[in-house]
Amino acid sequence: MAILLSDPLVHAVRLLDNGDPLVPLPFAAHVSVRTGLAARLTLARSALPAGVDLRVVEGYRSAADQQAIINEYRGELRSLHPDADEVELTRLYSRFVAPMAVAPHVAGAAVDLTLVDADGVDLWLGTKIDDTPERSGGACFFHADVDDEARRNRTLLARVLGEAGLVNYPTEWWHWSYGDRYWALMTGARHALYGPVRAPVAV
């Protein structure tokens, strides 16, 4: 069973923010992330085979936007699981959106991304980005049983991003992070590098 972002182990990770600013990604200027993550994404992009590129959909997300996603998805889950208590609802929603206290996007430490071909057309990775576990029948989980094409593309994505130092959140094949509490737990780092950001984007 994968460790979820709601797990106390994630919340217990120490945070010593190193102060890296938010910057626009050089190859996706509409997306902002911490400088350490930007450098690693650029490195990962350079390791892709000819004719394949990264398409980054989202990086930094405000606390207000994060809370709105939590509220909407928690409402859907409450309808599907009317007997679930708040602890169970938090566990369920954390498969798709992080609790605010440990949210990697709010720290500028995560991206949602996919692979595209030379024409910018998305490659097939088994589901659309942001397909919930319910909508995808669980196929959004990185290690789900998907077809050969999706598995090849997920393996390629994992190779280049993993070699660049990012970690995947295993319930979302498209979500990769660096420097947040989940990253620290998964890599054995002594502490997380990035906490919530409220500063403006550096220019």
Provide a descriptive summary of the structure in words.
The protein has 203 residues and is an alpha+beta fold. It has seven helices and six strands. Helix 3 crosses helix 4 (86-93).
Keywords:
7 helices; 203 residues; two-stranded antiparallel sheet; alpha+beta; four-stranded antiparallel sheet; Muramoyl-pentapeptide Carboxypeptidase, domain 2
Write a short abstract of this structure:
By secondary structure, the chain is an alpha+beta fold. It has one domain: Muramoyl-pentapeptide Carboxypeptidase, domain 2, CATH 3.30.1380.
Helical content stands at 25-40%
CATH hierarchy, class? Alpha Beta
First-last Cα distance? 42 Å
Oligomer: single chain
Structural topology:
Blueprint: H1 8-11, E1 22-25, E2 28-34, H2 35-46, E3 52-58, H3 63-80, H4 86-93, E4 110-117, H5 133-136, H6 148-163, E5 167-168, E6 175-177, H7 181-187
Antiparallel strand pairs: 1-2, 3-4, 4-6, 5-6
Helix pairs in contact: 2-6, 3-4
